[in-house]
Amino acid sequence: MTTLSAFNRFTDSLSEQEQLMPVLFIGHGSPMNGIMDNEFSQKWSQMGKEIPTPKAVLVVSAHWLSKGTRITGMDFPKTIHDFGGFPQELFDVQYKAPGSPELARETASIIKSTAVELDHDWGLDHGAWTIIRHMYPEANIPVLQLSIDYTKGPQYHYELSKELAGLRRKGVLIVGSGNMVHNLRMVDWNKINEPEYGFDWAVQINTKFKDLIRNGSHDKLIKYEQLGKEALLAIPTPEHYWPLLYTLGLKGSNDAVSFFNDRVVGGSLTMTSVKIG
Q: Buried b / exposed e across 32-69, counting CB within 10 Å, b at 16+?
């Protein structure tokens, strides 16, 4: 059981600092990226070295949808293998980063728009651990997940993310994990390894998304259904897109925006990722 003194020690360590932590949206793609040494995982590893070392990591993953909002509240979240049909090597991975019940309580307390439930059943799904294990391979930084309320719309998620802004000042790295363009039904598996192979509509809408992000046109990104048929093809279901909105909602007026892993995979998926700050 976490004692009050332990809670106070952790919240003291999360005192505000002068430098804001950046915010990331990461296109996570295939679970195999979690064990592969490729251009995507190499960039994740590089990013972990380039940005300030966080005191904790909070991930909003496309793969934890819930009714209501939850946050992992256990001392050691389990590694969830939420996929099938992959090599045993992938299922053998255990990313044993600690959690932080103290930070879970802190995060739940700063979200005022809805009640946040501390969850002790989830853990780290592949939208989280496949990325974070490359960024912080020693698993010595607390990692938590915040769920996405599937009953709510894009504007709700964008506004909720703003309530997390204070965590940036306390050294918490917030990561949205999904894919901007994510249409699995249209993937050309025969060309999955062909560099820069993308359907015209996927390339066009990915470029449009990047232009809107650069220009700070968040309203248009929230109302993505009004961006034409290309956007509807890119986002047949919204769960992989919602984490982008959590990232954008945390952008401050002075934050720079840059892109990395900006590549189309299999015609209808993009790994395009965003760094804010």
A: bbbbeeeebbebbbebbeeeeebbbbbbbbbbbeeeeb
Helix axes 126-135, 39-50, angle to 10 degrees: 60
CATH number of the domain at 77, please.
Answer: 3.40.830.10
What tokens appear for 136 in the block?
Answer: 């912080």
- Number of compact structural domains in the chain: 1
Task: Please calculate the CA angle 225-227-233 and round it to the nearest 5 degrees.
Answer: 65
Residue carrying structure tokens 């960039």 = 43
Give residue-wise pLDDT tens across range 119-150: 999 999 999 999 999 999 999 999 999 999 99
Q: What residue numbers bound the domain in which 170 lies?
A: 4-276
pTM above threshold 0.70: yes
